[in-house]
Write a structure and sequence with these properties.
The chain is mainly beta. It is built from two helices and 24 strands.
């Protein structure tokens, strides 16, 4: 009886995975926790990665040439690849690289034009991005190898802009910002570009609302919105807001405009409990992008904590 019980216990232990899982699983877990962002701390605007407590900050891109830049990075759903925009070859184009910065591959080819703001679909098979290849800045989608490019938005009138796409967690819709009706506002459309709906109506003389980010549960959208502007600085006063996915119940989360500062480009943590963003709330700027740092707060706007400490720009987080 004791021997039978012992053998049964051994058989149970045999099917229990080792504590901590495989090395690949542990690496995936570490990637899941990291924030990728861009910074001008070393002269050029480059892509960096750090842990959410601001430790282990590491530079991933090395863009050569005067005025070279790599920016607006975005994790792939499996956290193995990072898409970003760069002008390393002249034009601003969309590239991909491995999570450690290796194996850089160019995905868009728009001579004389620009492509930027890459966003992965939840299944990892497509990338939405913004490009002015056909005139206005419009939203496009392509396979992750750069093939099968399709235009999703068609905005009438010159000088209009559609930018900053972000997929819903179920992959059925894309939220973005657009100036099609005047100032920049938040819109949502189906994944094929149909059923466009406006979500925000920013009052007064503000510049509008931008940089939407879908929460992991698909129920809310974070964004930044400006209520006034300073005439001598392009960094308009803006705050982080959150709303329901249908545009209702708008709540303000940040409070930097009281100090004449801005908070921009929110992004949710994978578990939806926190929001990372960029802000110049803690310093005076000699130049427009000076003292712009990375912060994190709870999803209700509380417990704000600063992550980076550089005179130069740190921004465009992606968690």
């Amino acid at each position: 009886m004791k021997r039978a019980l012992f053998l049964m216990m051994l058989s149970c232990l045999a099917i229990v995975p080792p504590l901590g899982g495989t090395q690949e699983a542990r690496q995936a877990d570490r990637r899941q926790k990291k924030i990728v962002f861009d910074s001008e701390r070393d002269g050029h605007e480059e892509v960096y990665v750090m842990d959410p407590d601001s430790s282990h900050q590491q530079r991933l891109t090395h863009t050569s040439g005067k005025g070279g830049a790599s920016w607006v990075p975005a994790w792939s759903p499996d956290r193995k690849r990072i898409a970003f925009a760069s002008n390393r070859e002249g034009n601003l184009e969309v590239y991909e690289m491995d999570a450690d910065g290796s194996n850089v591959q160019r995905r868009t080819h728009t001579p004389g034009k620009e492509s930027e703001n890459p966003a992965w679909s939840p299944d990892g098979k497509r990338i939405a991005f913004a490009s002015n290849r056909d005139g206005n800045m419009e939203i496009y989608v392509m396979d992750t190898d750069g093939s099968n490019v399709h235009r999703l938005t068609h905005t009438k009138g010159s000088g209009k802009s559609n930018e900053n796409p972000d997929w819903s967690p179920d992959g059925k819709r894309i939220v973005f910002d657009s100036s099609r009706d005047g100032k920049q506002e938040i819109y949502v459309m189906d994944g094929d570009g149909s059923n466009v709906k406006r979500l925000t109506y920013t009052p007064g003389k503000s510049l509008g609302s931008e940089h939407p980010a879908w929460s992991p549960d698909g129920k809310r959208i974070a964004f930044d919105s400006s209520w006034d502007r300073t005439s001598k600085n392009w960094l308009r006063a803006a705050e982080i807001y959150v709303m329901n996915a249908d545009g209702s119940n708008v709540d303000r989360l940040s409070n930097a405009t009281a100090m004449g500062r801005s908070s921009l480009t929110p992004v949710w943590s994978p578990d939806g409990k926190k929001i990372a963003f960029g802000s110049n709330r803690d310093g005076k700027a000699k130049k427009p992008r000076d003292n712009f740092e990375m912060y994190v707060m709870d999803a209700d706007g509380s417990n704000v904590r600063r992550l980076t400490f550089n005179q130069a720009w740190d921004g465009h987080p992606y968690w």
